[in-house]
């Protein structure tokens, strides 16, 4: 088992170094940020999962390399701290972004347990990179143009009921969803359960894109639908993108509309009746509040309103009790819709 205090004990051995938590993006060098390449170049030590080390092989010649297996995340962080305490610059690499299912979180946990703080001589820098949902989305079109979320199906560290509640909630709320760690040699049922939960709230023909190894040598992309999703070839290197109720596939591209058709005529660009550019929709918050007040004044009870709008009854009750008024002095344009 890892011992972060062992790394803390070497503090006086040499001038403290630096830990750089580097997101290398999808894996191809041309899709890494300039800072990510520079961080690896200036590092004395490069630490990472064996597959990630291979992806940056042309950038690490002559450096000390520490390879770790998939289940040794905490050991990677401890090794990084030990090397930094010894005065070395360390590039601890993650695929995608280090802060999205990457090494940033485990490293901070190890650092804090070892007594580290931002005032510590060991410096820490996070170098962001494109996460799998960004790179996979770019390969299939524009599926994430509207609200989306990411959920990992790995139950190695998260209880399945917690994962299932999240899946059910986002499916009901009509998010576009990126599923990370959807399936492995041992974990084969999780994707089936995710499909079952989504089918409670989504149409069977909801578009789904399955992207394996985006921008890597063995990239593979499959378009399918929610009802057929679990039958597709899915593995640990796959990311599953599930569309919302408005997502469509056309000419081999998966697109989620931003919502412009709710406000503008898409043929001539004119603002629809009752709408104003730069302002909330007539069915936005203020318009909805007016409708809600009118419905309640007409005798519709809170429980019925909650069911009609698919919102908690206590939220409806609190909203009706909250006084509100339109600010007549607000500027005509409040936000950029692009």
What's the layout of helices and strands?
Blueprint: H1 4-8, E1 18-23, H2 34-42, E2 45-49, H3 50-55, E3 64-68, H4 73-85, E4 89-94, H5 104-113, E5 123-127, H6 132-140, E6 141-142, E7 148-152, H7 160-172, E8 176-180, H8 190-199, E9 207-212, E10 220-225, E11 238-242, E12 248-250, E13 253-255, H9 285-297, H10 302-309, H11 313-321
Parallel strand pairs: 1-4, 1-5, 2-3, 2-4, 6-13, 7-8
Antiparallel strand pairs: 8-11, 9-10, 9-11, 12-13
Helix pairs in contact: 4-5, 7-8, 10-11
Characterize the structure shown.
It is a single chain. The protein is of the alpha/beta class. Helix content is 31%, strand content 18%. The chain contains 11 helices and 13 strands. The strands form 3 sheets. Strands 3-2-4-1-5 form a 5-stranded parallel sheet, sandwiched between helices. The chain has a 5-stranded mixed sheet with strand order 7-8-11-9-10, with helices on both faces. The protein has a 3-stranded mixed sheet with strand order 6-13-12. Helix 10 (302-309) crosses helix 11. It starts with a helix and ends in a 17-residue tail after the last helix. 33% of the residues are buried.
How many strand units? 13
> On the 0-100 scale, what is the average pLDDT?
90
Structural category? alpha/beta
Main β sheet profile: 5 strands, parallel
> How do the strands of the widest beta sheet line up side by side?
3-2-4-1-5
- What are the segments in which pLDDT stays under 50 over at least 5 consecutive residues? none
Q: Give the termini distance in whole angstroms.
A: 50 Å
For this structure, the quaternary state is single chain
Could you estimate the helical fraction of the residues in percent?
Answer: 25-40%
What share of the residues does DSSP label as strand, in percent?
15-25%
Order of helices and strands: HEHEHEHEHEHEEHEHEEEEEHHH
Q: What is the gyration radius calculated from CA atoms?
A: 25 Å
- What's the overall geometry? globular
Q: How many H/I helical runs? A: 11
């Amino acid at each position: 088992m890892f011992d972060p205090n062992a790394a803390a004990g070497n503090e006086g051995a040499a001038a403290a170094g630096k830990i750089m938590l580097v997101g290398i993006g999808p894996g191809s060098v041309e899709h890494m940020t300039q800072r990510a390449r520079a961080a690896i170049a200036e590092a004395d030590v490069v630490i990472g999962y064996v597959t990630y080390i291979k992806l940056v092989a042309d950038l690490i010649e002559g450096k000390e390399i520490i390879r770790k297996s998939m289940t040794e995340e905490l050991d990677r962080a401890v090794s990084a701290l030990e090397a930094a305490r010894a005065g070395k610059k360390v590039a601890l690499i993650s695929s995608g972004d280090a802060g999205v299912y990457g090494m940033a979180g485990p490293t901070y946990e190890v650092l804090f347990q070892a007594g580290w703080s931002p005032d510590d001589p060991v410096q820490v820098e996070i170098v962001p990179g494109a996460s799998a949902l960004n790179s996979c989305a770019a390969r299939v079109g524009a599926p994430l143009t509207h609200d989306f979320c990411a959920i990992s199906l790995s139950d190695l560290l998260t209880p399945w009921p917690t994962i299932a509640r999240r899946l059910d909630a986002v499916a009901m709320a009509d998010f576009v969803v990126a599923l990370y760690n959807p399936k492995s040699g041992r974990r084969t049922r999780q994707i089936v359960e995710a499909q079952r939960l989504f089918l409670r709230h989504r149409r069977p023909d909801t578009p789904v894109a399955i992207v394996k190894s985006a921008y890597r040598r063995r990239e593979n992309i499959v378009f399918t639908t929610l009802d057929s999703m679990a039958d597709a070839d899915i593995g640990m290197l796959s990311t599953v993108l599930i569309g919302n109720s408005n997502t469509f596939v056309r000419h081999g591209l998966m697109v989620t509309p931003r919502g412009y058709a709710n406000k503008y005529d898409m043929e001539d660009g004119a603002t629809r009746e009752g709408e104003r550019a730069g302002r909330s929709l007539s069915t936005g918050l203020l318009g909805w509040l007016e409708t809600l007040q009118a419905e309640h004044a007409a005798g519709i009870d809170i429980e019925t309103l909650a069911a009609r709008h698919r919102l908690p009854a206590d939220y409806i009750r609190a909203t009706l009790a909250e006084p509100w008024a339109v600010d007549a002095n607000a500027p005509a344009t409040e936000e950029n819709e692009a």
